[in-house]
Amino acid sequence: MNFVPLALYLMVMTITPGPNNLVLASSGVRFGFSRTLPALLGMALGLACQIAILAVALGHIKELMTDLQLWLALAGGGYLLWLAWQMARASQPGEAGAAARPMGFAGGVLFNWLNPNVWLMSVNLALLFLPSGMPLWQAGGLFAAVSFLVALPCIGVWAWGGVALARFLRSPRRLAAFNWLMASLLAGMALWLVADKLPAGAVDMVPFV
Prior knowledge:
mainly alpha, 8 helices
């Protein structure tokens, strides 16, 4: 197995903007790095486990993914829209700051499973890099280890970025604007994910699209 192309592929896919990174940046602003760390570790571990499982079960998943894409997009899109609404409300007057909680470790682990793009990225990674002469369980373990080690610092950059932004966002007005911006980006991404998985021609039937 050639680890350099695998690591580069994972780095590009995990450091670019996406639902996971937007959530981590927002959490870094609101709660700081230490309280965001469980979600950060959970997301990295969840991605590693997801890639390993899909690599081992590639033969079955490849055919199943075609039928599941739309349903995964609908479930994931709905969850992301709900998450965007929570982000937008985070700094509204009267919000109980002490009651707010960051996403925990379990939430981070499960977050990737509702993101259809992560599913497709994981399947594509297995298709591109799965070695033919290696037992599947061994390849899955290697995929998991490399994915965790590469993804952790890449998504960690976004959490650290949120912490750095927090100094600039001490003003309630700036913080509210940031939360609405993150919420809008996340909502737009959710709608794009769903629209991208709709049958051909379905989007053309929607007025004003």
